[in-house]
Amino acid sequence: xxxxxxxxxxxxxxxxxxxxxxxxxxxxxxxxxxxxxxxxxxxxxxxxxxxxxxxxxxxxxxxxxxxxxxxxxxxxxxxxxxxxxxxxxxxxxxxxxxxxxxxxxxxxxxxxxxxxxxxxxxxxxxxxxxxxxxxxxxxxxxxxxxxxxxxxxxxxxxxxxxxxxxxxxxxxxxxxxxxxxxxxxxxxxxxxxxxxxxxxxxxxxxxxxxxxxxxxxxxxxxxxxxxxxxxxxxxxxxxxxxxxxxxxxxxxxxxxxxxxxxxxxxxxxxxxxxxxxxxxxxxxxxxxxxxxxxxxxxxxxxxxxxxxxxxxxxxxxxxxxxxxxxxxxxxxxxxxxxxxxxxxxxxxxxxxxxxxxxxxxxxxxxxxxxxxxxxxxxxxxxxxxxxxxxxxxxxxxxxxxxxxxxxxxxxxxxxxxxxxxxxxxxxxxxxx
Length: 432
What we know:
The chain has helices spanning 3-20, 33-40, 53-62, 102-110, 115-127, 146-153, 166-179, 218-228, 254-258, 300-303, 318-334, 342-350; strands spanning 77-85, 92-93, 97-98, 135-139, 158-163, 185-189, 203-205, 239-240, 243-253, 274-277, 283-285, 290-296, 308-315, 352-353, 355-363, 369-371, 386-389, 397-398, 404-412, 422-430.
């Protein structure tokens, strides 16, 4: 494709995909499909280091023939890597921690895969003791003081609702006054790490979980609260959620296959991941998900430092690849793609990975869990959380069923709330 043809197709494809599919909830500013591609095409560039698109399509298409010596022209291993900060591409205050706008808070509140389950867990916890006997701490109450109000309505003795954002705290006070709970809920403005409660809480509600579970500062916040703000912090029943997790799997991505060098330079993202609606069929997993982060709030002090290093080997699932090919063909056809041929392009895309996708899972108590993607297979479903995809190579990396994606996750999760988390993934595709 020429530069002008690529740009025309980009506009057509984005217009079609954003108007024909229901994208669900909006969320805080992030590198979405559209924003990413606008970044990539700011200025033309020329490079000779990439595999030309026609050759890439031919090589990737060959991977469907498992009877030959497939991908024989490619090296046995191909390196992949990415690194980014928790605040890259997101709204942040003072470039230190993730913040939200009103639409993001509304998306959280309306998320039916999240809010009713938190309500159920809060009510379960309050029913475990005598009415009007428990002090509740709501960490990150937001402008609607949603969980604080739920606790007050369902028998909490008192709720301390902490909010770091001045604007959100002011709106929370207005909300609480309108609902008639000023005697039951006290809003405290600032970081919880700087606040001392008049009395310790029986349990805490802490929905401060990012699309990579740790990215909103949950680790640092709970690390501090564990030491100062709860009566029995070593008990899992003192926390809602009791633990937060991040799952990961290598993923294929339509647009990196459709928009290739030299017209598009994916390195311009500079490590900033692309964030997807969890129902977006333009991203498909090629292997079973693996648990990467697993943070138990009750055990957070015993765990020690917040750094995580984990080596994982994913095996590309040939059945998933074939199912993905069919889904990608539908995506390209609905997007109006005619050149390159959508049948060939869907094969190319299904037999490649663009990076390692990550998403959160929350265990609220022994009986209630919140999944942003379908558990355990990582399938698509509606959620206000996003699927995070760091682009890990300049062009998609060809794969086939049986290949291994071997990577090391190196997450730095500070115990200071004003220091953003940082994430690195390094490894290689090893061809079978």
